[in-house]
Amino acid sequence: MKFDWKALTDYLPDLLAGAQVTLAMTGLSLVIGSVIGLGLALARISGFRILSWPAYGYIEFFRTTPPLVQIIWFYFMLPVLIGIELDSFTAASAALGLNIAAFLGEIFRSGIQGIDVTQRDAANVLGLSRVDMYRYVVLPQAVRIVLPPTTTTVMLLLKSTTLASAIGALELTRVGQLVSLETFRPMEVWTSIAIIYFVMTYPIALTARYLERRMRIGQD
After folding, report:
1. CATH number for position 90
2. pLDDT (tens digit, 9 = 90+) per residue, 131-147?
């Protein structure tokens, strides 16, 4: 069986549209996950059990349950509970955002706790408030620590958007399934999809490497 790329010519716009949905879903999920993840990290290190224990429970629950199950639950069960219909894009983005928040929360916590305690002592000596200490001293240094694992997590998030195809979200994988059924050219379709995912994902790794070098130079 030979590759026939001409068969996909008419469907390339559809695949690219699916890729746009994938990127949009990744971006929205990342915003949700970053905000909640930072909150979870700060709650975990706050020293107050009323904050740290619920954060711990959240992290462990979302890290130990399959994201596919979470996506399906958000799409089918949450509307029943809240009485508001959710489209597949919103449900998948919310579920993936809450899922990645658990992982980012632990990454951020490790990064913050990786800062030498003398840095906090110095901030206290200078009379900085707790908020200013984190804003100007702790978090800027923690970024260098969390960047590599955060990059890996973002790349995994982008690839996890394929799970949204289970609820019919028209991201790249779902579009690929439909195109494959219509053209009967699965080899060309899935090869093209793999290439598109690479084109979307690899720049994330390159950007992270560039930022790491810049931060290393700035630190030196």
Report:
1. 1.10.3720.10
2. 777 777 777 788 888 88
